[in-house]
Amino acid sequence: MSADVARRIALGAQGFADPRPASPPTRRHLQRVLSRVQLIQLDSVNVAVRAHYMPAFSRLGSYTPSLVDDAAWSHSTRKPRLLVEYWAHEASLVPVEDWPLLHSGAKRPGWWHNYTSIAERDPGLVDDILAVVKELGPVGAGAIEKALAGGGPRRKDHWGWNWSEVKKICEWLFGSGQLTTGSRRGFERLYDLTERVLPPEVLSRRVTAEEGARELVSRAATALGVATEPDLRDYYRLAPTRSRQAVQELVEEGVLEPVQVQGWTAVGYRHTSARVPRQVTGRALLCPFDPLIWERDRTERIFGFYYRIEIYVPAAKRVHGYYVFPFLLDGHLVGRVDLKADRQAGVLRVQAAYSESTADVGRVAVELAAELRHMADWLELDKVAVTPRGDLAPALKAVVR
């Protein structure tokens, strides 16, 4: 398989070969995006836009963010909850029906497992937190602390805890599946009992670790189209042994097909239902946590695009900026912009703009300017302002309206 075909398969699998809707996107369009990407990563950084809103915008264009909010944090008979929060790639929104797979044992216990010792030392605190959530949920960790401090259901014979331990136990209960996110206030997680959030048929499904790994790897292959085993493993952060076994079993079942991709040193695996778009056209800004690019080695292998997030790099040592969005144009990553939504001033600020060495700077500037204007409108910002930093900035500034 040529590298070009692999690139087009990957883009098609992620939904970038689908045309953007001609009319305002609906819940049905969001479901189509979810069927492609399989999960949406959450992140607290809000310098431009929350990470969980951006993948749908990148694929659908301007849409009402409440589509995602309703899918993730509300439920009604007419519009049942589509998504639930859990540790998948990282903190993620995943389809409700995938909950049993993530609790099958296919994944290793997450960082929250470190709090097991607190729960074992003070089981009374665990019981009391569950009691508060049962009474008050959906409820934040701060409100739980206040309820416990106020005498609530907490027994007075256990005072060996502090405020931080309440949050830690909430996260331990979240990780073990006893609590989940019932709703959010801003970006604050409001905990609720899992049985009040998920339907009984989902909670009652039992999946072995082997079956869970196979289904998760299959979903990763659907989302990636063609991928190495480490690529597939990374999508849900599976253990290497589980992932390798699942890949081999899926090859034997005819779900995955081993392929040699030009320029790849490792064997690739193509999902047998993955299609090869004849061409990929259109444009999109990608947030740092978009599933098309979140595995940086894969991004470089497929697109020849070296990308690292520099949030934690001291300002003086950053190469491209604080919160940098790669720019996808006609199936290639051709540039990157460091973006900030200045909500008080009503401005989408381009704090730096860079092009790739092979890019047509004039065309990239025109297309990027149009997409930045589209993003500003979506974020209800009045204008786009370009700071003269980066080789693309002069050309971009000249065409921004």
Summarize the structure.
This protein has helices spanning 3-13, 27-37, 54-60, 66-73, 99-102, 116-121, 123-136, 141-149, 163-176, 194-197, 200-203, 209-224, 229-236, 240-253, 296-303, 361-378, 393-399, and strands at residues 40-41, 83-87, 91-95, 179-185, 188-193, 226-228, 256-259, 268-271, 283-285, 324-329, 332-342, 347-355, 383-386. It is α+β, with helices and mostly antiparallel strands. A hairpin with a 2-residue loop joins strand 10 (324-329) and strand 11.
Description of the structure:
- By secondary structure, this protein is α+β, with helices and mostly antiparallel strands.
- It has helices spanning about 5-15, 25-35, 55-60, 65-75, 100, 115-120, 125-135, 140-150, 165-175, 195, 200-205, 210-225, 230-235, 240-255, 295-305, 360-380, 395-400; strands spanning about 40, 85, 90-95, 180-185, 190-195, 225-230, 255-260, 270, 285, 325-330, 330-340, 345-355, 385.
- The chain has 17 helices and 13 strands.
- A five-stranded mixed beta sheet has the order 9-10-11-12-13. A three-stranded antiparallel beta sheet has the order 1-3-2. A three-stranded antiparallel beta sheet has the order 6-8-7.
- β7 and β8 form a beta hairpin.
- The longest helix is centred in the last third of the chain and has 18 residues, at about 360-380.
- It is globular and about 65 Å long.
- The two termini are about 40 Å apart.
- The model is unreliable at about 150-165 (pLDDT under 50).
